[in-house]
Structures are given as C-alpha cells and as structure tokens.
Amino acid sequence: MNVPEAKLLKEAASVASSLLPEKSSSMVFQKVIAFLKRKNERYIPRKAKVLSKEQVERFLLDAPDDLWLLAKIVTIFGIFGCCRCDELLSLAMNDVEDMGKYEPELYTGHCFRRTGATMVVDAGGDILSLKHAGGWKSSEIAMSYVDDSINNKI
C-alpha cells in the first residue's frame, strides 16, 4: 500500500470512528477499503502527447519569428532540456549562456519533457542516458518513455 493510500485509509478510519458507533464503524471501514481498492484497479493515468520530430522542425522553421520567437525558444529549451513546466518557469537569464549562434490545446507543458525523452531514445540513447537526461532515479519511470519511442513502435 503506498503512502497516499495509507494516509487516506487512516483519515477514513478516523472519520468513520467519530461518526458511527464502535461496532458499526469497523464494518463501514471494511467497505470503504474494498471500495477504494476497486476504484484503484481501474485507474489509468493519462500521458501527455508527444510531438514528432517533423512537427518540431516544421514549427521551428516555418513559424514567423516576429510572432512565435518566444514560443520557439521555450520549445527548444523544453524539448532539448527535457524540462518540466516548473523548470521552464524557474529559468533565469544567468542560466543561459550566449554561445553566438498543431493544435496547442492538445499539448500540455509536459509534452516538452516527454518529447525530449522520446528523442533521446529515438537517437539511440540507452536507458542510462535517458535517466541522466531526464533526471530520473527509477528505471521504471524512464522505461515508460521508451515505450513511447516511435522507433520502438515499428
């Protein structure tokens, strides 16, 4: 049982014991546990969409800079940095070194991170390089991004 589930069950037990007589609270609590377990079995997390390499290239090359320059910069940082939304928001000018040189409602901020991770795998990166690029400690989490790799679907 994971921590949030254990905390939820503890809170449910507390509420049940405060509202019901001693004998009936244990029966209600058992029903609550059974209900939560049934609901948890059907839960399927949603995954953010992944932009294709062609979509990224088309946007970066075809979108006019006078209208889309900021979005292009955010796209480059988001994808090639495998950034989370909060990491993009916390970027400061000191984090950037000057080296000299669709349908938007379908794509969340997390799609940059997923696209970047997918591109690492598509370019031949192994699980270790993917974990390093994405900052993951768990191989299981990193492997979920490998499953989305276009080359692995072929």
TrEMBL record:
Going by the UniProt record, its keywords in alphabetical order are: DNA recombination
Q: Name one GO biological process term.
A: DNA integration
InterPro entries in alphabetical order: DNA_brk_join_enz, Integrase-like_cat_sf
Gene3D superfamilies, per the entry? Intergrase catalytic core
Q: Which CDD domains match?
A: DNA_BRE_C (cd00397)
Any one GO molecular-function label of the UniProt entry: DNA binding
Name of the protein in its database record: Tyr recombinase domain-containing protein
This chain's source organism reads Exocentrus adspersus
